[in-house]
From TrEMBL:
Stated name of the protein: Aminoglycoside phosphotransferase
Organism: Aquibium oceanicum
């Protein structure tokens, strides 16, 4: 018998997922401000970061 998750657990899970997406966009935006050589040195690709989306503000 599968265990059901409660309303609050689902709500908190959805909130955490939404916040994680927001943080990822923020970090990508910050990374996109770096020059190509620095990104390459740290293992990032500018085109891949652009595909994932970016935002320059937290809220």
């Amino acid at each position: 018998m599968a265990q059901r998750t409660g309303f609050f657990r689902n709500a908190v899970g959805a909130l955490v997922e939404a916040r994680q997406r927001q943080v990822n966009r923020y970090v990508n935006g910050a990374l996109l401000m770096l020059d190509d050589e620095t990104l390459k040195t740290h293992g990032y690709d500018r085109n891949e970061l652009k595909k994932q989306g970016g935002a320059y503000y937290m809220f």
